[in-house]
Design brief:
Layout lengths: L4 E9 L4 E10 L9 E4 L10 E10 L7 E10 L4 E6 L11 E6 L6 E4 L9 E6 L5 H7 L6 E8 L6 H5 L4 E6 L4 H9 L5 E7 L16 E5 L7 E2 L2 H7 L7 E7 H13 L7 E6 L1
Parallel strand pairs: 3-16, 11-12, 11-15, 12-13, 13-14, 15-16
Antiparallel strand pairs: 1-2, 2-4, 5-6, 5-10, 6-9, 7-8, 7-10
Helix pairs in contact: 4-5
Length: 281
């Protein structure tokens, strides 16, 4: 017996003054009556088998902001391949969890990056991993302080439900690699947030600024060494641990991790309304 297929909309922010909405059919894990909420952030030129797009609509948004020029104020290297860009905010207002479209001002190439900084910070920060064949991530790393960047945004719908925050609900954040960026923004923006953050990386050296988080709320899951809090994938941690049934779950990172984590939590009794994800490929 195969999981049933249900039509559902996946929202996707895109370059220019348009937002593309991919109407998809989503494979629903057993026991779920509705599909989980997924925002496709990156890699929309193809979709894995679990998401099968069959039509595409285009909407013009009158309030979409035009690209603006921002100055690079600083760069922090966290590892050989991962770094943080600090850029002038220029009054940009955003909700924690949103992302921007960014690239060099002298280039036509842009890419989506989740905002890393809190919404009360003076400047914007972006957590970026240099990809071997990544044209934008490589070019951004070569910038010097004072150089110009072109930014469009903020974009996206990935964020915490304000009512749930006011009600002091418990949150489970599950991230792989630089997928931790929106959760860093959420933690920095909302004091007193009741959360558990699972961060999956290969090596403990990739625990990007883990001192930011409450040590009792942050779990580093490593597969390449045993220097983290848990040796194994975030999905192994989820499988081996119990979570309060009223917890609201958010996922950001690679598609396979998100799919597997959602499957595990659905089997533990979590409803689709409790599962929210932002996917990149």
């Amino acid at each position: 017996m195969q999981p049933h297929l249900t039509p559902w909309s996946v929202r996707l922010a895109r370059s220019g003054r348009q937002v593309f909405i991919l109407v998809t059919r989503v494979r629903i894990p057993y026991g779920l009556q509705k599909p989980p909420k997924i925002n496709v952030l990156r890699g929309f030129s193809f979709l894995p088998q679990w998401l099968m797009a069959f039509s595409c609509l285009t909407l013009n948004l009158k309030n979409m902001q035009s690209p603006t020029e921002h100055k690079l104020l600083g760069i922090r290297n966290l590892t050989e391949s991962t770094y943080i860009l600090e850029v002038g905010r220029k009054g940009m207002s955003f909700e924690p969890g949103q992302h921007i479209l960014m690239g060099r001002s002298d280039s036509i190439h842009k890419r989506e990056y989740s905002i890393y900084s809190g919404n009360n910070n003076e400047n914007l920060e972006l957590l970026i991993k240099e990809i071997e064949d990544g044209m934008v991530s490589k070019s951004l790393k070569k910038l010097s302080v004072g150089d110009s960047l072109e930014i469009e945004g903020p974009l996206g719908f990935f964020g915490l439900d304000k009512k749930a925050v006011e009600q002091k609900k418990k949150f489970l954040f599950v991230a792989s690699g630089t997928g931790i960026a929106p959760f860093h923004s959420m933690v920095k923006s909302i004091p007193g947030l009741d959360y558990t953050l699972l961060h999956g990386v290969r090596y403990s050296s990739e625990a990007y600024e883990k001192e930011t988080y409450d040590s009792e709320k942050y779990v580093l899951c490593t597969t390449g060494d045993e220097d983290g809090d848990f040796h194994g994938r975030v999905t192994d941690y989820i499988q081996q641990h119990k979570f309060d049934k009223d917890t609201i779950c958010y996922f950001c990172g690679n598609f396979n991790m998100i799919k597997d984590a959602m499957d595990l939590l659905s089997k533990k009794g979590f409803s689709s309304e409790q599962l929210h994800a932002e996917v990149y490929f």
